[in-house]
């Protein structure tokens, strides 16, 4: 195969005792299947699909080497021969597809959500409920031995290597940094003492597994917390790890408690490749870079410019297991691109739900959400070409149905056409691009500019209504004032607003609109790093710089009827980023607001019993949606099989994750 398209990405990597087929590492992700019933059968199918898709080296989700290292009391542990036998189903499945796989060993340390938490010192993390016990010398030595034993068992289980989780603020990282290590013995104090723990783990692992076994060390190259490591310290540890027997160094960016976004969609693509590059000349073993790399071109550019030897992508393989094969076939436009939303992966993992993917609901459901060929070629009409309608149409066509997809607009995509215009959500255009191609490839007959009635739909075996939503207009006196505009009109028509704007409704849409209204113009990567106080010289501890917040020249008020915190948006792992962004830009966040009236003077409100007049130029309504569905009852009365999905079914908070899954699940059941 001629690899002219992405020659650096698809080049083999010789590790001496083994060769990886390309420079792609599938980064570690916890799926929730690790602990579930029948989970290993499903995990095997999940990893096998990615190996079949061409990944060079897969890294599993984190498994603890002992009981106290578990993230939750019932989290996955890998410390027995029985566990090794169970894992054989995974390694066999990956090897049958020509892939290689490493087991990640992760000790939670003070991040453990249980009273059994232990750490270098008894210092509670700001995101934890439990204060850890300070580890005794005996516990430290037993933990080192537990890592080594688990690595030996991983080899027994058929794994090609292990990844030692030394970043993101987990136990190994906790020993390295003064932030969490206040010991005065041989395991604390000087930097030399603080890095003894990771080095002893690597030495013990290498002694147990032999020379022909991959040891990846996930090294925190940029802690992004106070009292974090300096770059000079990172270099010292990297060189010592190489000497101790590490095969590959993988980049870690930011602790979980850091208040800087590192992987959310607001983060520019490949925003931290420069961090890996700064270490590149210091060691001779391969370096992996990571975070927000989601296209073959971005990945190849990193490698061709010498910033790293491999690229790690995790969520992109939830979005599309065939990512590497498509790149190899020069079919990048056919890749279902990860949009960095976190809504179905990390947001699920943090509440103990099974991970999946907003743009690919079959991720982690490979054995359950199966699109089997249909026995009878029936005619299906889908009304509405938004996310739900497109996903349903593609899935139904993949099964062999004849599908007509109607939309009254002259384009597909529905609300995604609005979302992609929000700063930090530009990736949504990739999803429209992907589904547009799939609609053509699967033979869906797309009829744009069609307003259908029940009379147009009588010849179909199945009719699916996916007509989406329209903005809800609240009953506020004066809501018809020219100052008032709904969010759809604002974004769709690119309406120019004045310098004082009130946004009514602080759900996800209100947060997005407020972000859009206060966004700095033409911000590049350097300016983004500067906005979040990231030290590009890496001279400061943890890579942090004191910085001034960017205050927007436009004055914005974001408000909600409900009392309490305002401006977080819907995402568990991204909500704090939204709120922090708005606070940094000077947006006034108001909860418990009553909207009294709107007139030429502005918006009259009552907050905590006090009347206020906001002298605004414009008022943007982000007050929810109502369904635009009017066909289903008429069709049902004619005896036509009809299903309603997406916003037409539930016009609550706009939720692309729910509607795309609903569309695919319905297509699978037809």
Structure explained in plain terms:
The chain is an alpha/beta fold and 670 residues long. It folds into three domains: 13-345, Alpha-Beta Barrel (TIM Barrel); 379-470 and 626-669, Rossmann fold (3-Layer(aba) Sandwich); 484-623, FAD/NAD(P)-binding domain. The chain is 30% helix and 18% strand. The chain contains 21 helices and 27 strands. The strands form seven sheets. The protein has an eight-stranded parallel β-barrel, surrounded by seven helices. Helix 7 (231-244) links the parallel strand 9 (214-222) and strand 10. The radius of gyration is 26 Å and the shape is globular. The two termini are 39 Å apart.
Give a brief rundown of this model.
The chain is α/β, with parallel strands linked by helices and 670 residues long.
Q: What is the average of the pLDDT values? A: 94
Strand content: 15-25%
Query: For the record, what is the CATH homologous superfamily label of the largest domain?
Result: Aldolase class I
Report Rg: 26 Å
Largest sheet descriptor: 8 strands, parallel, barrel
Which geometry do the CA atoms define? globular
GO molecular function, one term: 2,4-dienoyl-CoA reductase (NADPH) activity
Keywords: Flavoprotein, FMN, Iron, Iron-sulfur, Metal-binding, Oxidoreductase
Pfam family, one: Pyr_redox_2
InterPro entries: Aldolase_TIM (IPR013785), FAD/NAD-bd_sf (IPR036188), FAD/NAD-binding_dom (IPR023753), NADH:flavin_oxidoreductase (IPR051793), OxRdtase_FMN_N (IPR001155)
